[in-house]
Amino acid sequence: MKGFIPHAVDGSNRAQALEYFPASAITPKKGMALYFSSGLLAACTGTTKPEYICMYEGPTLTSGDVIPVMRILPDRIYETAWSTTGTSINVGQKVTIAADSLRITATTSSGVAEVVGKADTAAENDPVFVRFP
Q1: How many domains does the chain have?
Q2: CA dihedral 105, 113, 27, 21 (to 10 degrees)
Q3: Closest CA to 66 of 112, 28, 104
Q4: 43-84 residue pLDDT tens
Q5: Are 104 and 83 in contact (CB under 8 A)?
Q6: 42 in a domain, yes or no?
Q7: Please, which residues bridge with residue 94 across strands?
Q8: pTM for this prediction
Q9: SS3 of 26, please?
């Protein structure tokens, strides 16, 4: 599995509507972590905290094309995957966003995704559950 896919909600059961915003010239993938940069949605990597999750998959966009996204809320838990082995990471630690904007790393320096659940193996591409506090 690749991408940040909504898994669970802590507390609120209100429905979440899609929002539509212009994006930079990215190749959108469902579950891609995004943030606003100079008024356009851009792919999140490293220590940049995501603000939205892409809900569209398609060819490379022309800058300014509008795409559907879901706002990241603090009570949401997302299922994603490791971009590398995450056995050294404990639940409660914060890690960074992988270069593909679809998974997390095992890097804790200035992490933005809090690990809230993982398998013992935590091998590359194994599922992991995160939130963005």
Answers
A1: 1
A2: -170
A3: 28
A4: 999 999 999 999 999 999 999 999 999 999 888 999 999 999
A5: yes
A6: yes
A7: 114
A8: 0.92
A9: coil
